[in-house]
Amino acid sequence: MHRLPVAKSGQVIGLLGGSFDPPHAGHVHITKEALKRFGLDHVWWLVSPGNPLKQSGPAPLAHRMRAARALMEHPRVTVTDIEAHLGTRYTAQTLVALRRRHPGVRFVWLMGADNLAQFHRWQDWRWIMDHVPVGVIARPDERMAARLSKAARIYRAARLPGRASHVLGQVAPPGWCFINLPMSGQSSSAIRAQGGW
Prior knowledge:
9 helices, seven-stranded parallel sheet, 7 strands, Rossmann fold, alpha/beta
């Protein structure tokens, strides 16, 4: 059984959710950049039991947790399977449960630009935007699709300029910020396709 994350009232905690199937250096890179650029106290990796938008299931959760913990070693990052303990399947459900469990904590949802491009397909995506600040991290080849996405258009007025990214956790939702990073093109799906997982 894995230790559940602890948070203190007033902290700003970034949440990076995903299947991490497998975790890779790109996840580590965006996590460290998010800590700096978005002014976060901590980041929690939410290793999900499964992705509702994907047809096939990921590798066993315990296997992905071990790999993620071995890869992500940082004093301000916690790798957790809290969604399995909460029994939540969708991001909005997880956020409701975490906000209830940690009422004084300011959560920031972190996602790659590829997720923003299809964010409108997520269950209760507008609730997420209306209740939690969102930090969007550009990935290769996804910048334009993300900026033209339905979510970006609807919430255009709530977008913070990149130079103000460090205050994202302090803004009242809706609020989101898009940052560009020099990033590797490494992806979990490519690693699986090459047989490296």
